[in-house]
């Protein structure tokens, strides 16, 4: 009869959970030993838990099924928390396995004792369970899998005491049924159809699962038929885009710009999305972005079949035969001269290979990326769903493991890259086809903007130094080399293009350090807050024109 | 009138909290701006929150007063959790400041929204407070300081909503009074004196504050007078040791060895310590290490004056004039030949400068460190109090900032170093006199031992690969260079000694990568579990002799 860990492992692989991103310790040794009993389980070691959890997140976004994690006690969970938060906000399924002390060891308050369930609840509000007995572990695992891959997807945390794991008498559980989400009700579909046909100013706001091809196509048909706008949430979990697909306009990160996008709308229809709010609060500004005069409707909630519900609306309004507007193919030219963040984005658009996966955590440096890649070959875009930086490099690991035949291009800010820089080692160890592009502008550029946006006016040297990554300069190519990743550094557009072409032509991983000036020069930065303040008051056409200059 | 952040800052510095280890985001921008209003506040930027919290821990251990942290929302707190856990277990005072969204932004569930209080409770069971109003922020800060530096020291978490921080009408609070811990009661002192005079086999077990010179001297007098043993907890918060100080025998990490240390004791007297338990649970083994026949007494709890209480016992038993046994000066010779972990420890003992601070997170590679440095010049030793690895490099930052005139030597395992490798950048930025020695044995060596100790017998390649850091090899000297730290690599004892001499003679920071074989060879590793199993059954003198071969 198998022990607990073996039953757990079999339950996982039988349900199709075939990758485990791990950072184990002593209490997880029986899980580790059980890896050898399950040829179908791939174990990917990370040097830091935030890498493991972020990789599980990226994997599930691309594989459309969960991976498992393996974390060591409450402290390991703490280290993995930020990227589990991002997964939670992106409604991404993860079977989050956290080892614990043996049940009889817990009351002794040994050095590593902490309250795991409490910490887990923060990222797993829907499913936290400590398995109490070896005989129940298989069933607990199946329940965790079912919870993770439900609608909406979630981080399901299974806490695994060492003695439950090593005990004899494990029983593998059969795979839980796949979820079958419901369509929006006929009444809802009719009501939404009426709004679309009203002739008012209407926008669809698509989130999460609504940003995949079937839902995008249905939305584009509705847009063409009824003259409505299609918006996407600011940070998509996974957005299918590029030549041949419908385009959507992402809500801007800067609340001032988002205000312009939503200005004048009569009706906003939510599809697996929430009413947009500003990322942060700012003194004297409202956090809600939807105009007070705009009616908010819900077509499909995250627990419903969003593509099917959109299709039902298409059928109800007779938009089925409408030709949607699709993005024509087109790439920007080859950039030249001194490297800037914009030229990096241009080079990515110029060279993006077929079926690429773009991981965008470039913060300010990536502002031009959406525009530069709009007409590039069809690709997937993964973004920072929960705002907890340090997601991009780990996400790239998971995406590359989920889709080994697709190139992964990760664009990452310098400050951001340092949160989970250990990811590079796992990329090298697993020979992943990832090209990581690090924008080295030597500052927390976004915070320089935010400092002024929050109205912290009198800014001295000590404050500035908190946002500044100069002294010492980070050398990312060297960091990559120290972890076994091929790393190069580019100061000119020509060098960058050469390095990127090399990376695309040779098996990865690669890291290209793009040395760029701060995305917003001092002068632009000084103007920006005033400009943003003025924006909502400007005549709409002027505001839109300015917005096009400023926004992604 | 100051705003909230300015009142907070003034309250901190007036109470002597003069260093802030920070990793801020948008919601903390007013705190950042307020730095320039307080010349007495030093702000030290970290690239990762675990570095900031670990630095605050190391600082407080050496400064004997708390620093502040500045973390960004719940995710930043999550990233800092592991080292806050270590601080909690070491009873180390930290004023842990976590920025939050503006109070009115919280209900909107924006991207970075999470439940901060819940996560904080794990490491701050004694003090978590969200400041509700600008006028109260000064008082809340004073309360947090008082809680942090109480007896025992603790991590006090103050959650700082952005609008409370930016609001007008802040009022700085006067410094809270310093704590005045009580002595053990006269009855307790008399009872302990009687135990010491009983002629039975008695040991003192010293923890936390009892490992500083006054308590050590009092204990050594009692040892000399009454023929008792003096033990120290396995992972001291801060241990004063070296030539001229009394020695204490640390409880071994391996439960089997600890069992031998405690074997045959009639009475164990706790001084700011708990009854020792094994670090982890092992199948079929008891977790409690104190023999069932041993009486456990408490002289002083963590909320009492431990040195004063020990002195009261000295007075009660007339040991005041007894001459304590002190460690004679003495250093090991210069190591030669192929480098091993033991030779690194030998070189450290051979060269340790006066008044050094040793941070020991070398796990298996540091086994010989205590022996090799026992007679070195007087120094402080900081260890992994909570078992959450990734503490050493951040602790070294804090220790160096607390004691700028003392050299800090941090001995770190390779696996461990990678958890908070970003610490190197802060060391370079702040020009800290730290020499980080990384034992590069290319494995999680301790886990190879643990895998067998937990009885996970059939170990295959996949399991082994989870404990193995080969492929790609980490190159720590290069990683150091990539973050602006002078890094060298040593394969021979001669090279290591040369690099260490250079590091001691030149301003830091330095990193020396010591390339060493796994601390326990395959053969030794295979024997170890059997040996450990046999140990408690062997005749005491033989077990002790073996223990001396195996233990620190």
UniProtKB/TrEMBL annotation, chains A, B:
Pfam families, sorted: TPP_enzyme_C, TPP_enzyme_N
Keyword tags: Thiamine pyrophosphate
Domain Thiamine pyrophosphate enzyme N-terminal TPP-binding stretches: 3-112
Protein name per UniProt: Acetolactate synthase large subunit
Origin organism lineage: Bacteria, Pseudomonadati, Pseudomonadota, Gammaproteobacteria, Lysobacterales
Positions of the Thiamine pyrophosphate enzyme TPP-binding domain: 376-513
One of the protein's GO biological processes: small molecule metabolic process
NCBIfam families in alphabetical order: PRK07586.1
């Amino acid at each position: 009869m198998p022990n607990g860990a073996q039953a757990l492992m079999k339950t996982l692989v039988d349900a199709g959970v075939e990758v485990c991103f791990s950072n184990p310790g002593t209490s997880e040794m029986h899980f580790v030993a059980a890896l050898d009993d399950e040829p179908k389980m791939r174990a990917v070691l990370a040097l830091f838990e935030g890498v493991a959890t972020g990789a599980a997140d990226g994997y599930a976004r691309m594989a459309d099924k969960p991976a498992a994690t393996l974390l060591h006690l409450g402290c390991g969970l703490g280290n993995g928390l930020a990227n589990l938060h991002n997964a939670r906000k992106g409604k991404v399924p993860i079977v989050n396995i956290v080892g614990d002390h043996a049940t009889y060891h817990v009351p002794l308050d040994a050095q590593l004792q902490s309250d795991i369930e409490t910490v887990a609840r923060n990222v797993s509000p829907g499913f936290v369970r400590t398995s109490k007995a070896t005989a129940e572990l298989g069933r607990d695992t199946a329940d965790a899998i079912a919870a993770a891959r439900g609608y909406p997807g979630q981080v399901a945390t299974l806490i695994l005491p060492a003695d439950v794991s090593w005990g004899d008498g494990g029983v593998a559980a059969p795979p839980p049924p796949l979820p079958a989400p419901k369509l929006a009700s006929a009444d809802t579909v009719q009501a939404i159809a009426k709004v679309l046909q009203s002739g008012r100013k209407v926008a669809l706001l698509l989130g999460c699962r609504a940003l995949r091809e079937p839902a995008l196509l249905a939305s584009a048909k509705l847009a063409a038929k009824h003259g409505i706008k299609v918006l996407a949430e600011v940070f998509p979990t996974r957005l299918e885009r590029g030549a041949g697909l419908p385009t959507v306009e992402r809500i801007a990160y800067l609340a001032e710009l988002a205000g312009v996008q939503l200005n004048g709308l009569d009706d906003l229809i939510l599809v697996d999305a929430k009413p947009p709010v500003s990322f942060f609060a700012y003194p004297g500004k409202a956090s809600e972005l939807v105009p007070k005069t705009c009616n908010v409707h819900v077509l499909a909630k995250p627990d419903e079949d969003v593509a099917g519900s959109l299709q039902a609306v298409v059928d109800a309004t007779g938009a089925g035969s409408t030709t949607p507007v699709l993005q024509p193919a087109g790439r920007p030219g080859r950039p030249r001269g001194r490297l800037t963040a914009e030229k990096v984005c241009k080079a990515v658009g110029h060279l993006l290979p077929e079926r690429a996966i773009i991981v965008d955590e470039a913060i300010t440096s990536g502002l031009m990326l959406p525009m530069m890649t709009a007409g590039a070959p069809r690709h997937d875009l993964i973004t920072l769903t929960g705002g907890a930086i340090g997601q991009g490099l780990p996400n790239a690991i998971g995406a590359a493991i989920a889709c080994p035949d697709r190139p992964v291009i990760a664009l990452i800010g310098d400050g951001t890259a340092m949160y989970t820089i250990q990811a590079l080692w796992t990329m090298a160890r697993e020979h992943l086809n990832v090209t990581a592009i690090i924008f080295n502008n030597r500052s927390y550029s976004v915070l320089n903007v935010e400092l002024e946006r929050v109205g912290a006016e009198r800014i001295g040297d000590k404050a500035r130094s908190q946002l500044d990554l100069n002294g010492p300069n980070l050398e990312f190519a060297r960091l990559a080399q120290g972890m076994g990743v091929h790393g190069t550094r580019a100061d000119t557009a020509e060098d960058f293009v050469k390095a990127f072409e090399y990376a695309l032509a040779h098996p990865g991983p690669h890291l290209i350090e793009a040395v760029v000036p701060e995305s917003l020069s001092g002068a632009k930065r000084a103007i920006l807050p005033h400009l943003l303040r003025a924006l909502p008051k400007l005549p709409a056409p002027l505001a839109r024109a300015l917005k096009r200059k400023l926004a992604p």
